[in-house]
Amino acid sequence: MNDAPLMSVRGLTVDFPLGRGGLFGKPQMLRAVRGVDFDLAPGRTLGLVGESGSGKTTTAMAAIRLAPASGGQVMFDGADLMALTPGQMRQHRRHLQVIFQDPYSSLNPRDRVGAIVREPLDLMDVGDPAGRAVRVEELFTLVGLRRDQMALFPHQFSGGQRQRISIARALATNPRLIVCDEPVSALDVAIQAQILNLLRRLQGEFGLSYLFISHDLGVVQFICDDIAVMYLGEIVEMADRPTLFSRPRHPYTAVLLEAAPSLARRKSQGYRRQGIVKGDPPSPLNLPPGCAFASRCPQAQDRCRAEKPALRDTGAGKVACHFPL
Amino acid sequence: MAAPDPIVPQTGSKQPGAAPPPATPGRSNEASSPMREAWGQFLKNRPAVFGLALLAVIVGLVLYGHFIFDADPYDIVWMPLTPPGEEEGIWLGTDFLGRDMFTGLMKGGAPTLAVGLSAALITVVIGITMGSLAGFFGGWLDDLLMRLTEFFQVLPALLFAMVLVTLFSPSLWTIAFAIGIVSWPQTARLTRAEFLRIRELEYVTAARSIGAGNGRIIWRVILPNALPPLIVSATLTIGVAILFEAGLSFLGLGDPNTMSWGLMIGQNRNYLLDAWWPVTLPGLAIFLTVFAVSLVGDGLNDAFNPKLRSR
């Protein structure tokens, strides 16, 4: 990460209103993302990893203002996205695109797929109408679809093909950053590989940056250059891929890596898991004063329960733990 | 500690991402919109097709019947209350003033259908506007519009319509407007429910992510996807509105200057004990029309409902 970052997120916070207790009660807020900082370098892929409810999707969506954030700063292209008016934000959208998780609900079922891919060009007023038609054909070829499929409707495609359409739509305006929100988790494993290879090839061709959300460590290891591990709305560890996978510093990261199923580490081969995490994360409405992971951490000590660890530099990465491994 | 194995297999030697996916069997290459598929489904539904055919016959007779049998429905042609078939040329008898029933039925259909259609149109326009604004924006606007909707919903519909028609002149338009005013809340709630459901779907977020504004999202993205249940509801509203108009006419609140089926029933009801035909025949016409509309509405409902697709 030597280059100036393409996107730089500081202190991003997201609150969800929970409704009020009674008519005159105080509105309750759930803090889903609690002060997240990260940098995304041009041409690289940053993975956001964590279990369900850790706030990884919310973080990414809030960073590009598709979900309302309650605090923080997102520097992109010399501007703080959080401070832009809706009209200015719309102009920035051509550089910030999204590939969604569910290929069955991310394409409008009433539009032909050619129109779906063309829509960003029309909305952003890119080129002239004839040029747009050419561009759509180009995009179809680029993602491995045939031109004669442009007149079809989304329900006439398989999941993998729909994800290709989604990718074509995201690429239409030549964005610099694409948020990939678990783009392969709804697909068959064989199709996952195709889509991941496609994403990697496009990254090389166009110098794209990806903010890649996933809970699948295999996928993350395949595609991500840097990885941020999230737990209960905070980043607990951040490092580049080789470092994180070979030497996790945070106990939660270690547990996460251990928990991934592996053929090499079978019970029948005498393998025993070291740390086993029991129970669920604490409720985000009622967080403990210390480290949020302390109640499940195999290494937890008294200090962990009393004092909240800050995200510190370890040389190879960053970790938020009093007693890093 | 060993790193987990990469679960992603490196399938394919040559750039798997570049290879076009093989054509999936069973998927034709012909574009087929969800609407066209629903139409295909509708055509498989025999009662619905029957309803559509019946409706076509009724509409055809009502709109073009006068090219064949042109006569003034207000002309007194024979003795009052002549039973059907008694006189040559007066097949369906006469009413209490001696006017020809057959001509009345032919001429009275158009206003009846017009009231039904325009009332349904008013219902749909008000209902969709209210429901889509409430469902899309939520918050205080939703609260405000839904309280307004509930206010209209708890009004006794027939009574309120009677008041409106009495206050203003009992013309066809007042009647259609009154029916529209009392029936939009249902459409509004249905629209709101659909908007609440669809606005959470990823294609709405996707539209926002490519820079679509609220207006475009409401009209171009959410509304087309919310239409199927609204079309069904609008179709059924036509039937309800026709019955409503008949009810108002029966109570003496119809437009006395326009021959309609409801008016025929209303004017002849005092003679029901002496003559059945002046009331029964227009009643039968209304029944057949509403029946046909309902069959079509039901058919549309089944056609749009993907859970019934496999039948």
Salient structural properties:
heterodimer, A: 325 residues, alpha/beta, Rossmann fold, eight-stranded mixed beta sheet, four-stranded antiparallel beta sheet, 10 helices, globular, B: 311 residues, mainly alpha, MetI-like fold, 0% strand, disordered N terminus
How would you characterize the overall build of this protein?
The complex is a heterodimer of chains A (325) and B (311). With 325 residues, chain A is α/β, with parallel strands linked by helices. Chain A has one domain: Rossmann fold (3-Layer(aba) Sandwich). Chain A has ten helices and twelve strands. In chain A, the strands form two sheets. An eight-stranded mixed β-sheet of chain A has the order 6-7-8-3-9-10-12-11, with helices on both faces. A four-stranded antiparallel β-sheet of chain A has the order 2-1-4-5. In chain A, strand 7 (177-181), helix 6 and strand 8 form a beta-alpha-beta unit. In chain A, helix 3 runs parallel beside helix 5 (159-171). The two termini of chain A are 24 Å apart. The relative contact order of chain A is 0.14. Chain B is mainly α and 311 residues long. Chain B has a domain at 118-194 and 223-311: Orthogonal Bundle (MetI-like fold). Chain B is 65% helix and 0% strand. Chain B contains ten helices and no strands. In chain B, helix 1 packs across helix 10 (277-304). The interface between A and B is large, with 75 and 44 residues.
